[in-house]
Amino acid sequence: MATLSEYFYTGPRITLNSGRVINMQTIDQGLAYSYVLEGIPYGPDYQRTVNLHLKWAKDRYPDRRIVVLEPSLRPLGIAEVELQRLRTLSQSTEPDVSRRAGISYPEPVSIGSVCCRALFESKPINGDAYMLSQLMLLWFQDGFAMPIDPQVVKQIQALDWETVALDVDL
């Protein structure tokens, strides 16, 4: 049975590969591509999406250390994507039809439909000098958490908390 402190003040826990236990304190989520007004995401464009969400997180949480977990690129697999690609080719201004047919576009990919930003806390890194250690993680997954995508959990578990987190006082 949980103690009152655990019941009221402990969020979801993840045990890192090092054995350290971290607790999620907050999670903020939003649609990853909500800023896209037109078009579809292509392979090379995914870093722009990551950078935009990182900037938003830094603006919202200026005093937090933020680590971006490596996004997993996956094909969209949506019939509309192929239709849009064909439409783009047909609207090309290239006058030579044979050259227009040779235009290739990178494979449309997604890094996940939802961007998650979560604050994790743990015991202090440097003994009793601070109250706790914290780290804000940013990741992408298909669908809103909870649960956290299993591949993301593996990345979280592999973190070297002592290197990436910050000791803080409240």
In a nutshell, what does this entry contain?
With 170 residues, the chain is of the alpha+beta class. It has six helices and eight strands.
Notes on the protein architecture:
This protein is an alpha+beta fold and 170 residues long. The chain has one domain (4-168). 29% of the residues lie in helices and 25% in strands. It has 6 helices and 8 strands; from the N terminus they run αββαββααβββααβ. Strands 1, 2, 3, 6, 7 and 8 form a 6-stranded mixed β-sheet that branches. Strands 4-5 form a two-stranded antiparallel sheet.
End-to-end distance: 28 Å
Helix content: 25-40%
Average pLDDT figure: 84
Q: Count helical runs.
A: 6
Radius of gyration from CA coordinates: 21 Å
Largest sheet features: 6 strands, mixed
What is the H/E string? HEEHEEHHEEEHHE
Gross morphology: elongated
Structural class by helix and strand composition: alpha+beta
Number of domains: 1
Task: Please tag this protein with its features.
170 residues; alpha+beta; two-stranded antiparallel ribbon; 6 helices; elongated
What is the element layout, followed by pairings?
Blueprint: H1 4-9, E1 13-15, E2 21-31, H2 46-60, E3 66-68, E4 74-75, H3 79-90, H4 97-101, E5 109-110, E6 114-122, E7 132-141, H5 150-157, H6 161-164, E8 166-168
Parallel strand pairs: 3-7
Antiparallel strand pairs: 1-2, 2-6, 4-5, 6-7, 7-8
